[in-house]
C-alpha cells in the first residue's frame, strides 16, 4: 500500500506507527506543515482506561509515554473557600511536545517517512491508495470538500485560553474564582516536573466586563495572574499563542470521500473539560488501523472504520458537550453549598455517578449524603444522614413525601368510556405498594372529546369518579405513597388510535371533533382541529374546573395540569402550533394566557394546603420552537400563579421533531428551570437506575425523579433500591414483610459481590512503582 498522512499530530503519527508495524511493506509518508518541535498548548491528559488502550495497541509507544508522564490519582475542586479532593481517578499528564517527539521517533524507527514544513493536499499523492486527513480542527481538506463531508460547527459561547505555569500540582485541579466581573475557572494539571497546564475559561459577559476582549496575549496573562494570584502561589503564567477563543464542537455527516478519510479533530472535536481531544484522536487511529487489520479493499476498510467507530466518537462528544454546558452555566450552581457544588463538578458529564464515586471516594460521597440530609433538615423535614439522597424526604405545601422517587404518569389506554377498571386497580395498587414516594395517574381527560384515544381514562362523570376514589383509597390504605392526578386535554392529538395500533394516528372510524390553538393537523393525514373560539375556551376551562372538584372528592393528594407533548395547552405554548393573531398568540406572554387561565381556575378551587404541578415540554426539538428563554418564562409564570413544581419533559409537539436521546437526556432543562427559575422540578426521561436518581438529587438538578419504563416491569423498584442501599425503614404492607426481610438480607451479600466485581473490572493503575487505590471502572 501507498499511504499518505496529511497532518503530523498525535492522530496521524499514531496511525502511521500502527500501520507500518503491521504492514511493513507499506510506504507511509506523514506530511506536517509545522516544524518537528513546534507545538501549541502545553500538556495532554490520559486516563488509566486510555493508557490500557494504548498499551494494548502498541507497547513500545505506551512505554515511552508512561516514562515521560506525571501521574495523579486525585481531582481537587477549589471553590467558595473550600477544597474537595476526590481520589481513585487515575490520570496522567504528558507534555504535548514530548508526546509528538516520542511518536515521531517511534514512527521514524519503523520506517515511516516524515516531512515537515510542507503544505500538502490530496492531489500531491496521485499514487496513494489511502490518504488520511489528520490536518486538525481547522482542516483545509474537510473544508474544501465540505459539501461531501457535511461538517457542522457549534461555536460555544464561553471564552478560553491555554496557558502554562511552573507551579507543581499533585492532582487535576479546578479553581473557581469569583470576582466583581464574574466567575473565572482554571483547569490545571502538571504534565512534567516544573510544568503545568492552565486552561482559563469564563463566560462571555464576564469576559467583556473584565476587558479581556481588548487585551493582547501578555496583558490578558498579567490580568489572570491577578485573578489567580493566590492559586499561582508566586508562579507566573506562561503563554504560547495563548489567544482567547471559543470552542468549536465539530461533527461531520461523512468521514470518508473516495480514498480520503478524516481523522482526529478534522472529523470531530471534544471539549477540553473532559480531557478528550488527544485521546479521541489516538483512539481514532487505533480504530482505523483495526479496520485495515480486518482485511478487504480500501473502500471496505474505510466503511468499516466509520461504521464501527462513529458510535464511540458520538458518545464521547455527547459527554463532552454535557460537560461544557455545565461550565457555561456555572453561575447557575454558585449558590449551592461547597459540597453539593463539588459533587456537581464531578458528575457534570453523567459519566461519573453516585455509585461510581462511592467506590472511588467513599468519604466524599458520605459528606455529600450528609449535606443533602442537612438541607432537608433545615427545611423542617425528618431527614436521616445515613440514607442516600433518593431516600431523603421532600415536601410540597402540606404534602410530605417519604422519598424522592416518583412513578411517572404513563397512559395505559385501557379505560373504555374513560372508566378505570380492574387493570388500573392492580396497576396502581402494585406501584403504590412498591415504595415510591409519589404516584402519578396517567393523563386523565376532562371530557369525552378531550381524550387522546378511546381507551384514555377520564374524570367527567360519577362512574369514573367512583372508580378513581376506589383506587386512591387502596393506595392510601396499603402504602405511604402520595397520589397525584394528572389532568389534560388531547387537543389536536385527540381522536387517535390506541398506542399499540398506531400512536397518534387518526382513528379509522368513530372519531370526534378536536380543538387546538390553531387549525394545524399533527400529521398531514390527521384530522384538522378547529381553532378554539372564546366559547370553546370557556367550556374547556369549565371542564377542567369540574374535574378538579371531582379530584377533591376522590381524595387525591396533588394535582397536575398537563401542558406538554403537543396536547391542547401545549399547542398554545409552542410557536410551532400557535399561529393565532389575537391576544392568545404571538409573544410567549400571549401564548401563556390561556394555559394560565386554566391553571388559575383550577388553583382557585383546589385546596390551598395541597400542591399543584404543571408538566411542560421544555423544548420542541424542532427549528422555530420553544427557546430556553420561553421555557424559563413559562416556568416563572406558573410559579407566580401558584404552581409548586414543574414536571419537566420535552418534545412530542410536532411530528417532525428530532430529539437527541441518551441517558437522562431531558435533565438539562430540569436543571435550568430549577436553578434559574427558582421552582422545584421533577425530571423524567430515560432514567433507569437508583444510581442515577441519587446522582440527580445530590447534584441539585431536580427535586424529584420520575421513572416510567422501569416501573412497568418492576413495580417495587423503590423497595429494591432501598435494599441495595441498606435502607430498612421503607414502608411495606404487613403482608409482604417476610419478602422485604429476605430482600434486605440477600441485598447486602449481592451488593458486596457486585462491588468486588466492579473493583476487578476497573482499569489497572499505571502509577509508577505503586499500587492504585480501588476505583470504579470508567
From TrEMBL:
Region: Disordered, residue numbers: 757-778
Pfam families named among the record's database cross-references: FAD_binding_3, Oxidored_FMN
GO MF: FAD binding; FMN binding; NADP binding; NADPH dehydrogenase activity
Family matches, as Gene3D superfamilies: 3.30.9.20, Aldolase class I, FAD/NAD(P)-binding domain
Listed CDD domains: OYE_YqiM_FMN (cd02932)
Annotated ranges, domain NADH:flavin oxidoreductase/NADH oxidase N-terminal: 390-723
Ranges for domain FAD-binding: 127-316
Family annotation (InterPro entries): Aldolase_TIM (IPR013785), FAD-bd (IPR002938), FAD/NAD-bd_sf (IPR036188), OxRdtase_FMN_N (IPR001155), YqjM-like (IPR044152)
Name assigned to this protein: Bifunctional salicylyl-CoA 5-hydroxylase/oxidoreductase
Organism, as annotated: Falsiroseomonas algicola
